[in-house]
Design brief:
Blueprint: H1 3-13, H2 22-29, H3 39-98, H4 103-116, H5 121-132
Length: 133
């Protein structure tokens, strides 16, 4: 310590400052009552419930997607089958049109293709073949 520090110390000693009250020490060091902490179990339970709900939602959404995909596949399969049927009818009508006296039957087949399979490319081909008669 330097001499200045010693002088300051001596000056401060002349002031008699009161210390902390004695009951403060007793309050600080007294044994605390044990509290049951329910916060951690409540937080853990909340996390488990949230995780369970997430898993439930995820599994239900996948089932819906599976059902939706099955419906889409069935629709695609029906479209392919209808296009195949239209192609077969068009091929049969073309064979009839090439036969002597078969133009009338071919015309009926072309009209049937246009009527029943209007959303296929084969309906457009049937229209062009009717125009070429």
């Amino acid at each position: 310590m330097s001499s200045d520090d010693k002088k300051i110390e001596e000056m401060l000693r002349c002031y008699n400052l009161p210390g902390p009250p004695s009951e403060l020490k007793d309050r600080i060091f007294q044994p605390q009552k044990k509290r049951r902490k329910l916060t951690w179990p409540a937080i853990a339970a909340g996390i488990l419930i949230a995780a369970g709900l997430c898993l439930l939602w995820h599994s239900l959404s996948q089932q819906t997607d599976t059902k939706t995909n099955a419906a889409r596949l069935a629709q695609i399969e029906r479209s392919v089958i209808r296009a195949g049927q239209a192609a077969q009818l068009l091929a049969a009508a073309d064979l009839l049109a090439k036969q002597p006296g078969g133009e009338e039957y071919a015309l009926e087949q072309y009209l049937q293709i246009i009527k029943n399979y209007s959303n296929t490319i084969y309906a457009k081909q049937a229209e062009s073949r009717i125009k070429s008669f």
